[in-house]
Amino acid sequence: MNKFILFVAAMLLTFSTFAQKNNERKISVNGTAEIEVTPDEFYFTISLKEYMKGKTKVEITQLEKELIQAVTNAGIPKENLNVQDLAGMSYTRRKKDAAELFTTKDFRLKLTQPNKLIAILDAMDNDGIVAARLAQYTSSKMKEYRKKVRIMAFEAANEKAVYLAEVAKQQLGEVLEIDETKSDQFPGLYSQVNTNDFMVSKYNAIEQASFTTIKVQATIQAIFAIK
To answer: Which residues belong to the signal peptide in this entry (predicted)?
Structure first.
């Protein structure tokens, strides 16, 4: 009999706790934040192509050596320059001549100071440069910026919950849940879209870098108890 009474009491206690949880008063709010930051890492694509200088063909190896030397002279580590693509194109100077292959080579150059691109390209043979463009960009402090914007989003949610509770003449309690519902999906590098890559000059590339910014966003959903 005593065991039965204890069992019923336990069931009633469980039901009471369940009912309290279901009837728990709470408020759910969203907070959104956005910051705009200036990138400090820029990735440029430099395209070189073999060409005829009189009757002499300027080889891609010579153009590549010039680029490497120009990068070194500008104080840029060699590791910041990498081959991105290699292609060949047949070209006939005169109808009776056999087709000749001209190689095009794309390089990826990482710079923290975009203006150095001008000095690098000015030190080279311009006839061998097909294009120079800003391809991608990022910030070395993206992790810090993402943390900052999440904190700002939560603070916005908290502020909203406080004044809504005050309007309802209620007192805000502890945080029950925090969920990041939306944030920018940072791909590591942001891409710069050009409508006509091979018409972009070195000065256009610098101008693109100068006006480029990154928007870092976050939305936090927070659920607070109402006392």
So the answer is: 1-21
